[in-house]
């Protein structure tokens, strides 16, 4: 009997009609394995995963394969996005056994959850042989299987240990991390490493803050080059905005077409901050289009943001997105078809499969002649209208707390910067204004949804769908990302309740997730017990739980003046500092927060009757150093600690600048404020 029909996870629902007798992750599944004295087959994936779909079609939908699975195993299907704790434990085991990891992940475990054989994708013939071999070993070589499992648990227990070496995260260490990234940088194509090439959003955020603190031209150049290469490549949807998960090549041409919420949220922050620092027109356009993608394609009205768009359409990867020269001519006519083919590098040979091409910008358009820009915009609109008539990729519409937190923070920053550069004479002014309006609505919707639906009895839940919250408990990254988001909403709106909610989440994290010497576990002390308790300090596709909680602690401490939260942040960063020293590429968000602490962070309060358009507020947002917090509003506004006891001076709007809880004199002119911000 397949038990997935009532699941909240779209990934599990994709498997609800399989002939496999799937169980969701639950204690009853392991009890059943004990009763039958058979191993547990744990299959981990997610809804937008291309090779998960392939393995499902080849094996899980096949009656003969399903019969083998049902006869000799209890089969458990896990959505890695819904249960990141389960995924983390078994991914560590898979990497320990095979030297690599990925999804789909296939794990064979004892009835107590101990993994003894792990792998990823298996073609059907290989999978059938593996099922037979594991079943035979369980029957005939039980002691060897159990010894293997014990060795794996010992290995992954060490990999997830806390309480290691600590060190302060100093300016010298962050400078060395920036230098290490510069050495690993791809001078030709931008980014780091070869194929597959992932967008290094957290490293770019760090380098932007490093540039702001040190003036490093090298750090800024790495960001600008990489940002332009990604934006003009096939990784970026040239028609509708939004970035794909990664490029299958080393030069950003052909993407793996799934679009993840977390990538687009973090990349929105990169392009927004690059725009803020430089005024770059390409960064402005990409920030706008990414914000529009989040608000239009990923936001669900009355809820939060969906998790992902699928890599496949009707079982074919990229079907929605690729073009041939003939298709361009069919939509645009001969002249504009040739113009589009040249501009978007669409050739007869193609860059993808069967002679089709992924659209990429062959040359700059943001600073081109106005007539060229007008023609480009017209072509984009007509191609997008035609593309909308094609079959569209499925959307994984579950709401993940941490990823929604990342999106909320990104959209709050985008709105602040958009206000700085508002220009009614700009040819795209109406479009930008419209994007800001929908982005603000989506951001507030998501924040309200997290507060109303995901917060249950003072604790955070990981996922929801259709406004129904799921059972999985929030993990550390959920608490950190959501608390940081609530701090961002507090700064944007001046509403005190968001700061209160952030503090409540951080207090739970400190009470339930903290480990000795400043470290954190990824799961709470009262969470379900797995074979090990995960505590991964490295940043990967998303900020680690540890980096996320530090970012929230730093922002909250700056907004409230409560030093114990800053002290907790410093202690936690000291547990990551040795990893920053050795592996800068995998500690980008931790280094980003470290830059904020080094700069102060600055605490800027603007006492004003105009908390939206005051020139002092605009100057604060434009010139604030890395990680600064900024609030504006009437003096002594309830729920806003930074405005407490800070009156207008001589009846004029007044800025108060503090750094690390040490304050400068209040100022009433933009020039004086800019001078204080360095």
Describe the 3D structure.
- The protein is of the alpha+beta class and 678 residues long.
- The protein is built from 24 helices and 21 strands.
- Strands 1-3-2-4-5 form a 5-stranded mixed sheet, with helices on both faces.
- The longest helix has 26 residues.
- The radius of gyration is 26 Å and the shape is globular.
- The protein starts with 9 loop residues before the first helix and ends with a helix.
- 52% of the residues are buried.
Radius of gyration: 26 Å
Average predicted local confidence, pLDDT: 94
Distance between the termini: 66 Å
Number of helices: 24
Q: Tally of extended strands?
A: 21
Main sheet?
Answer: 5 strands, mixed
Structural class: alpha+beta
Helix content: 40-55%
Strand content: 5-15%
Low-confidence stretches: none
Shape label: globular
Strand order of the largest sheet: 1-3-2-4-5
In short:
The protein is an alpha+beta fold and 678 residues long. Helices cover 51% and strands 10% of the residues. It has a five-stranded mixed β-sheet with strand order 1-3-2-4-5, with helices on both faces. Strands 19-18-20-21 form a four-stranded mixed β-sheet, with helices on both faces.
């Amino acid at each position: 009997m397949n038990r997935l029909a009532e699941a909240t996870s779209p990934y599990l629902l994709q498997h609800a009609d399989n002939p496999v007798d799937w169980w969701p992750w639950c204690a009853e599944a392991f009890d059943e394995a004990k009763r039958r004295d058979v191993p547990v087959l744990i299959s981990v994936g997610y809804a937008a995963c291309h090779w998960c779909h392939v393995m499902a079609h080849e094996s899980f939908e096949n009656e003969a394969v399903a019969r083998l699975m049902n006869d000799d195993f209890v089969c458990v299907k896990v959505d890695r996005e819904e249960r990141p704790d389960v995924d983390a434990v078994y991914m560590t085991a898979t990497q320990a056994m095979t030297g690599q990891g990925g999804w789909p992940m296939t794990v064979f475990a004892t009835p107590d959850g101990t993994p003894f054989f792990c792998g990823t994708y298996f073609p059907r013939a290989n999978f059938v042989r593996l099922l037979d071999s594991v079943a035979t070993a369980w029957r005939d070589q039980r002691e060897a299987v159990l010894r293997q499992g014990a060795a794996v648990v010992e290995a992954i227990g060490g990999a997830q240990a806390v309480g290691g070496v600590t060190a302060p995260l100093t300016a010298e260490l962050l400078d060395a991390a920036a230098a290490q990234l510069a050495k690993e940088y791809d001078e030709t194509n931008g980014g780091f490493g070869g194929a597959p090439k992932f967008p290094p959003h957290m490293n770019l955020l760090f380098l932007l803050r490093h540039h702001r603190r040190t003036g490093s031209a090298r750090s800024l150049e790495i960001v600008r080059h990489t940002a332009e290469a990604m934006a003009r490549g096939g990784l970026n949807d040239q028609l509708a905005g939004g970035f794909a998960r990664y490029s299958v090549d080393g030069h950003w041409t052909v993407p793996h077409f799934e679009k993840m919420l977390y990538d687009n949220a973090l990349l929105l922050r990169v392009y927004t901050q690059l725009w803020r620092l430089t005024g770059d027109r390409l960064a402005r356009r990409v920030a706008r289009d990414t914000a529009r993608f989040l608000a239009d394609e990923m936001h669900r009205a009355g809820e939060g943001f969906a998790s992902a768009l699928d890599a496949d359409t009707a079982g074919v990867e990229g079907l929605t997105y690729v073009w041939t020269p003939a298709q361009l001519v069919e939509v645009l006519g001969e002249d504009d078809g040739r113009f589009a083919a040249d501009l978007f590098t669409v050739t007869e040979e193609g860059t993808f499969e069967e002679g089709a091409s992924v659209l990429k910008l062959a040359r700059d358009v943001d600073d081109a002649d106005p007539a060229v820009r007008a023609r480009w915009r017209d072509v984009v609109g007509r191609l997008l209208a035609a593309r909308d008539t094609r079959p569209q990729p499925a959307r994984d519409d579950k709401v993940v707390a941490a990823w929604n937190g990342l999106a909320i923070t990104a959209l709050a920053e985008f709105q602040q910067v958009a206000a700085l550069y508002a220009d009614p004479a700009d040819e795209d002014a109406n479009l930008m204004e419209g994007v800001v309006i929908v982005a603000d609505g989506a951001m507030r919707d998501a924040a309200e949804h997290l507060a109303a639906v995901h917060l249950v009895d003072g604790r955070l839940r990981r996922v929801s769908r259709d406004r129904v919250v799921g059972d999985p408990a929030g993990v550390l990254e959920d608490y950190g990302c959501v608390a940081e988001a609530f701090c961002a909403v507090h700064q944007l709106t001046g509403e005190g309740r968001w700061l209160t909610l952030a503090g409540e989440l951080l207090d739970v994290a400190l009470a339930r997730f903290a480990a000795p010497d400043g470290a954190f576990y990824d799961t709470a002390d009262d969470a379900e017990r797995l074979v090990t308790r995960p505590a991964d300090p490295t940043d990967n596709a998303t900020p680690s739980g540890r980096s996320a909680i530090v970012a929230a602690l730093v922002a909250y401490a700056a907004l409230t003046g409560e030093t114990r939260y800053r002290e907790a942040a410093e202690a936690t960063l000291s547990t990551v500092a040795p990893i920053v020293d050795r592996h800068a590429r995998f500690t980008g968000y931790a280094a980003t927060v470290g830059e904020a602490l080094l700069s102060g962070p600055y605490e800027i309060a603007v006492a004003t009757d105009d908390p939206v358009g005051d020139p002092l507020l605009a100057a604060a947002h434009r010139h604030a150093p890395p990680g600064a917090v900024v609030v504006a509003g009437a003096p002594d506004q309830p729920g806003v600690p930074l405005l407490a006891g800070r009156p207008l001076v001589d009846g004029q709007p007044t800025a108060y600048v503090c750094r690390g809880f040490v304050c400068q004199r209040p100022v009433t002119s933009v020039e004086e404020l800019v001078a204080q911000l360095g």
